[in-house]
Amino acid sequence: MNLTNHLRALVDSVNAEDTEGPLDSFTDDALADDDGRQHRGLLQLAEWNTRQVIGPHARLRNLSDHRVGDDVELLVEGGSPPAPRRA
Question: CB under 8 Å to 68, separation ≥6 — which residues?
Fold first, then answer.
């Protein structure tokens, strides 16, 4: 799978609220920086994914992606849908 398809699969799995799919995209020593909060390694990424991504039903949009040496940087924008309003 090429880089673009791999990253598209990562974003699509988050948007589908797939709890395992996003983790399949990371290496054991991966780092996610979420607005300055860093999560390193699969255990921290799994906790972050459950608490901050899948839990609040986040939706992502890929803004850019590129290789930096052996690493891949993915910049996304996203957020949770608004809560339903109560009458």
Answer: none
Distances in Å between the Cα of 17 and the Cα atoms of 13, 36, 50, 69 are: 6, 23, 10, 30
Euclidean distance between CA atoms 56 and 53, whole angstroms: 6
Q: What is the pLDDT along the chain (87 residues), one digit of tens a residue?
A: 566 677 788 888 888 988 888 888 888 998 888 889 999 999 999 998 888 888 888 888 888 888 888 888 888 888 776 655 665
> Which amino acid would we find at residue 12?
D
Residues forming beta bridges with residue 68, ordered by sequence position:
71
Largest CA distance in the chain: 53
Q: How far apart are CA 25 and CA 11, in angstroms?
A: 10
Please work out, in degrees rounded to the nearest 5, the angle formed at the alpha carbon of residue 7 by the alpha carbons of 2 and 11. Answer: 150
